Amino acid sequence: MEFPRLTKNAVIFQDEIDPLNVLTAKRIPPQNIATRLAGREVWGGFGPRSGTEKFLQRSMYQSIVPNFTVTHVEKPPCFLRKFTPDGKLFVAFSADQMSVEVYYFQGPQAANFLFEDLAKNWNYNRNNPSDSSGFKPPPEKRAKMSVSDRRAKNDPYSRGFPDIISAEDKDNYSQEIRKKIFQAFFKLKFRVRVAPQGEDLNRECSLFTEDFRYLVVGSATYAHDDYAQPSHNEIYRTNESVEPNERFPLEDYTIHIIDLKHGVLTDSKSFKADRIFLSHNQGLYLFNNTLAVLSVQHQTISIFHVDNGQFWPVRTIGRFCYEDDELLYSAVPSFLSVRPKDEVFFSTLKQRLLAFLFRKAYEKAHESVDQDLTEIARLRQYYEQLVNLRIWKMQLLDEDHLLLKYSSEDVVTLKTPEPNSQHCLFVIYNIPKTNVIAVFENTTEELVDFFENFTDNFRNNNLTMEGRFTSSPSNNMYARQIHQKFRQTITSARYGGPVEATKRILAQLPISSQSYSSSPYLDQALFSYDDHRVSSMERPKACGEIPIRFYGRDSGIYKFQVHAGILSRGSAPSGRRLVAFTFHPSAPFAISVQRTNAEYLVHFHLRLDPHSLLPPI
Description:
Elements lengths: L10 E4 L7 E3 L8 H10 L10 H6 L9 E3 L7 E6 L5 E6 L4 E7 L10 H12 L18 H9 L9 E2 L6 H14 E8 L6 E2 L5 E2 L5 E9 L9 H4 L15 E9 L4 E11 L9 E4 L2 E6 L4 E8 L2 E8 L7 H6 L2 H4 L11 H20 L6 H8 L1 H5 L2 E7 L4 E7 L1 H4 L12 E6 L4 E7 L3 H9 L1 H5 L17 H16 L5 H9 L20 E2 L12 E2 L5 E5 L5 E5 L14 E7 L5 E8 L2 E8 L3 H4 L4
Parallel strand pairs: 3-7
Antiparallel strand pairs: 1-2, 3-28, 4-5, 5-6, 6-8, 9-11, 10-11, 11-12, 12-13, 14-15, 15-16, 16-17, 18-19, 19-20, 20-21, 22-24, 23-26, 24-25, 26-27, 27-28
């Protein structure tokens, strides 16, 4: 449904008593792509803009949208992962989770040839409107897309052209599209064996280097079997190593790096009898060429420099902080006879944390006029809890600073049912200077203000690169409104309040590496949509029957809708339905993978213009 474009602010209502009290209609900017491009070329935009050049560039996407969905796409036996940040390649994992498959993306219009008959059928219906008896295509077209055509005729959002091939479309034409559309969009570049024998690749772990040349993935397997058990020294390498349990089993991990240009495995690093959270990149963080790997089991952070497809060890933070600390430690003969688990002194990192807290309490006590020792007494009161804290998560703020999240061992080892509601500490650690520079509790309002005003710094968004730009509360007022609404909802809830709202907000920290999509169709400044069903954060969402509708933010006009639910009649799965979206970083193309019980359904969302499919007159 199109609305007329207003060239002036038309007056809707004017008070007869007070002429200055005037209600005017909002001016709708031009929506035609040709008009937008001409205006950008001549004037750089339409009227004064409070945004930046980045917004003006991305606003063109409001006129070119993924308006068509093909459900139940037939794909090769693999698990679809994500696009490279430049959008040229697509990464998938093989069905046996042993190999990585890389495909060329052929472009958003690569499958147009499959829809030529659909466009002809639409053109016939437009030139020969149905009579009172209903839809009447020609006999040779009657079996093709009849269900979709009838649905499009009755759907006010479709504008007469079908916007979906659903599960109800079981004709030969629809089945042919489902079989050929994957090969039309994707062409296999290479398949490389990555995981060693006995290990499985984690389908939710993948990181791209800054030049998009290399891919980092992880594999794992259980650390013991009936014939080999890890020794005591392998399980407890430091005096802060946690106790394994049924919910926290030990595994053998291997981090791999793949050359996407030549299709070869260039390097691997192994971590035996360990616990690293690979899912959603929680235990790995890549910033430029610096890779950090968190061992939750041994409470260490391994820092690597990634160069020319190789992992170059830099240092390991935890038991020691400097590179030569272990050498100095080994020079004392009496220390060598003590197992790491039985060491009585603190690890170097824990010592840095406790020393910082003491100095902070000491300075507050001596800065006060009456020498108030409350902070020192409070430190002594919670001393045992501080000593027993363990690292839960981490992220690199830049190449020199780590954000560490500490919590109790029950939380770290997954024994606590509600981990995000537990008390924890956020520690900012300087890697070269090996010192702690700030400590925050998860009830601190100051850290919430930092997060709300500098979200891009926590997400490591590089605003000069198209592949890194995402809307956030710090750069988008609409995203900030959603954030404030979430905060107010928790505050006013029955068992909520300001403290609970602060905990829920800070539960997002640390943020996993490369976990946000840069697609312009998820930019809150460009489109309005239901953020409970799809968002820029790459996490599965609850699946609904109703399509997700997108509206232009500047006009409020309906732009397109994404069908991601089960559309076949009579389908009533008993389990929870989830859907994961993978948007292309720049093209009008997206993939949704719907999970129902143990079944995975793949849907393609693409740009389809019926006028461009018709033969020239």
